[in-house]
Amino acid sequence: MRQYLMRFRFLLLALLLIATLTACSDSDDSVSDSSYGNHIALTGEDNMRDLGGYESKSGGTVKYQKLLRSGELSALTDADKEIMTKLGVKQVIDLRTDSEATEKPDTLPAGITSYHISLIDGDLSSSASNQMMADIMSGALDAKEYMMQTYVIDDTKIEGWKKIFDLLETGNTTLWHCTAGKDRAGMTTALVLLSLGVDEDTVVADFMKSNDYLANYISSTVAYMDSQYGAGVGERLVPLLGVEQVYIETFLADIKSKYGSVDAFLDVLGVDKDKMRRNFIEYR
Question: Which residue range is the domain that position 166 belongs to?
């Protein structure tokens, strides 16, 4: 748990360091149906996505404009907020720690209810985060192996997901997010899609899309760190900044090892899979 906390403290630092270097996509403020696709192009957030259109093993597909994932929402423009309103978002679930949410609070349009459900137990000091960052930069700590440790199940995640599924089972259009929208949001998205009968290959493919939408952020961070600390330093941080397939595979394997199957784990979380599918799957 200590390492998990340090990782997200570092990500916050990295984001602050490159805030002036990374530009998000131009937004299209016309959102009327599913024709815009899964990626929601905003000025203030790169990694917002609609989960609509994924096929369920039940024969239906996930509804559009019902389930969304993203990174932090602290830099939304007025146009971005209008898009969120048009998408019909009713509730936002912030998966970040207290310090992350305090330092970069969400700026949401009116009419959206916000819930703070951290998937990490507590916060860590900057000194501990700085030491972790120094270890990775020096090569003393392997970032990929370190990241894999953050994808294991623990009591804090379990309690958080129980609350999250309770909110989802209301049927309200919901967006959940963390800092970069890839790790905590990625694990949560995997569970949501699996609860809807989406197959694991599709879940893995959705998880990996974060690398596409965070490409500018990753390359800018690597270039900045190389310029400040020497060539090759930035590359050591890439496993922290993006995602790798082994991360989500580790997550799924840990569930199956501890609980026997994903369905059994969803039962532990108290997920009403029939209600989830009534809320979010459409049949044609």
Answer: 2-282
* Strand locations in the chain (E): 49-50, 61-62, 67-70, 91-94, 113-116, 174-177, 281-282
Contact 67, 48 (CB under 8 A): no
Question: Domain containing 186 — which CATH number?
Answer: 3.90.190.10
Q: What is the pLDDT of residues 145-178, one digit of tens each?
A: 989 999 999 999 999 999 999 999 999 999 999 9
Q: Give the residues across from 50 on adjacent strands.
A: 68
- Overall domain count for the chain: 1
Rounded CA-CA distance 64/137 in Å is 41
CA 100 to chain CA centroid, Å, is 14
82 vs 238: CA distance, rounded Å: 33
Six token digits for residue 87 = 């998408």
**CA gap 284, 273 in Å, rounded:** 20
Tens digit of each residue's pLDDT (9 = 90 or more) over 61-119: 999 999 999 999 999 999 999 999 999 999 999 999 988 899 899 999 999 999 999 99
What amino acid occupies position 121? D
Q: Tell me the pairing of strands 61-62 and 281-282.
A: antiparallel
Reading the block at residue 49, the tokens are: 């996505």
d(CA 259, CA 261): 6
Judging by DSSP bridges, how do beta strands 174-177 and 67-70 pair with one another? Answer: parallel
